[in-house]
């Protein structure tokens, strides 16, 4: 196949080579009619810009800043970081840098401080995982006022002007969890919807999961089903968690299932005696090692895979495609609602991410 050259496009479009170059790089003054004609000819002739050559030739690189929770004590965010770092490897031949900024997921002050440091780095775009609603809104507003493209992962803030959200549809994830629990649920049972998180965490994804969960049971009513929603922040203390759950089981003697709204289902298993675990079903999120161990043992029945690694990877790659190729990025990029159980677990473990830039 003959390679299409810029001068071939210029000749067919009836314009100068310089005009085609200005259209390609979206710079200089070109009328809309001429721009559309040039682009039409490009499409007709099957012209594919060499983005690698363009990026290497450009003196101005692109600097992406990622603001995510610290990964030291949370395997979920370790996986998100791995996805971002995997994207960095794929971008090593391009004039693109990615700098990670971390914050303590239990500290609003840490989040705001990290966001301020991010702004000092003068990025071209921002990848953001906001766990605090009010502060998250404030920082997104600030980034957009600076005309920075913003992509969100993990939590969809539904903020006008954000380039894209990448992650699960949390409302649908809640409904799916409810359906999984409903399969073996008997009438006159109690279902515990448990959020193990810091008291001041008000993530929109957790709220959406609960709404979806309750919506399912509102439409699929079994006689006497009671949904109890609880939050517990002292989950790192196994003894405190044990006492807390014991009190709940004494208060609700017909507890049949527990839906843990984040990646900490393993904390529940750690705290419950085996005789109780044999009588209840547990549904949680995320393929982190302690959850996988209990899934293999049968103590956790189902895990919904939020795939934080893919969120981090595609978050960076979509920003690159937007910055370098002016690609239209979908506002919502929902990842599949993977239901993982012991029978299909091995198909999900050690999945390899792609290692290429897709323009």
The proportion of strand residues reads 15-25%
CATH domain class name of the largest domain: Alpha Beta
Supply the number of helical segments: 14
CATH topology of the largest domain: Rossmann fold
What's the short version?
The chain has about 350 residues and is α/β, with parallel strands linked by helices. It has helices at about 5-15, 15-25, 30-45, 50-55, 75-90, 110-120, 135-145, 170-180, 205-220, 240-250, 265-270, 275, 290-295, 310-325, and strands at about 60-70, 95-105, 125-130, 150-155, 165, 190-195, 225-230, 255-260, 280-285, 300-305, 330-335, 340.
Task: Describe how the helices and strands are arranged.
Blueprint: H1 6-13, H2 17-25, H3 32-45, H4 51-57, E1 62-69, H5 75-90, E2 96-103, H6 108-120, E3 125-128, H7 133-145, E4 150-153, E5 164-167, H8 170-182, E6 190-196, H9 204-219, E7 226-232, H10 238-251, E8 255-260, H11 265-271, H12 274-277, E9 281-285, H13 289-297, E10 302-305, H14 308-325, E11 332-334, E12 338-340
Parallel strand pairs: 1-2, 1-3, 3-4, 4-5, 5-11, 6-7, 6-8, 8-9, 9-10
Antiparallel strand pairs: 10-12
Helix pairs in contact: 1-2, 1-3, 5-14, 8-9, 10-11
């Amino acid at each position: 196949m003959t390679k299409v050259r810029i001068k071939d496009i210029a000749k067919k479009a009836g314009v100068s080579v310089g005009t085609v170059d200005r259209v390609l790089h979206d710079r200089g003054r070109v009328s809309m009619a001429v721009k559309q004609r040039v682009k039409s000819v490009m499409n007709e002739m099957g012209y594919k810009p060499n983005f690698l050559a363009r990026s290497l030739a450009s003196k101005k690189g692109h600097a992406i800043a990622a603001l995510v929770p610290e990964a030291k004590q949370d395997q979920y965010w370790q996986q998100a970081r791995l996805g971002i770092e995997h994207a960095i490897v794929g971008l090593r031949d391009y004039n693109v840098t990615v700098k990670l900024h971390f914050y303590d997921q239990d500290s609003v002050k840490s989040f705001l401080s990290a966001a301020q440091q991010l702004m000092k780095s003068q990025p071209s775009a921002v990848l953001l995982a906001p766990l605090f609603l009010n502060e998250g809104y404030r920082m997104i507003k600030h980034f957009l006022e600076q005309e920075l493209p913003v992509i969100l992962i993990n939590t969809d803030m539904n903020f006008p002007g954000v380039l894209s959200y990448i992650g699960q549809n949390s409302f649908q994830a809640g409904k799916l969890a409810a359906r999984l629990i409903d399969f073996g649920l008997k009438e006159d049972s109690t279902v515990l919807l448990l959020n193990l998180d810091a008291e001041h965490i008000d993530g929109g994804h957790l709220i959406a999961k609960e709404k979806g969960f309750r919506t399912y049971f509102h439409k699929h009513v079994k006689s006497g089903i009671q949904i109890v929603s609880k939050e517990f922040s002292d989950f790192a203390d196994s003894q405190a968690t044990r006492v807390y759950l014991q009190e709940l089981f004494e208060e609700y003697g017909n507890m049949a299932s527990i839906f843990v709204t984040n990646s900490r289902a393993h904390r529940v298993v750690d705290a419950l005696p085996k005789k109780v675990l044999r009588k209840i079903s547990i549904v949680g999120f995320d393929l982190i090692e302690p959850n996988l161990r209990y899934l293999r043992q049968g103590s956790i029945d189902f895990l919904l895979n939020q795939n934080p690694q893919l969120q981090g990877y595609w978050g960076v790659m979509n920003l690159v495609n937007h910055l370098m190729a002016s690609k239209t990025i979908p506002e919502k990029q929902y990842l599949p609602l993977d239901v993982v159980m012991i029978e299909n677990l091995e198909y999900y473990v050690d999945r390899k991410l792609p290692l290429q830039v897709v323009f």
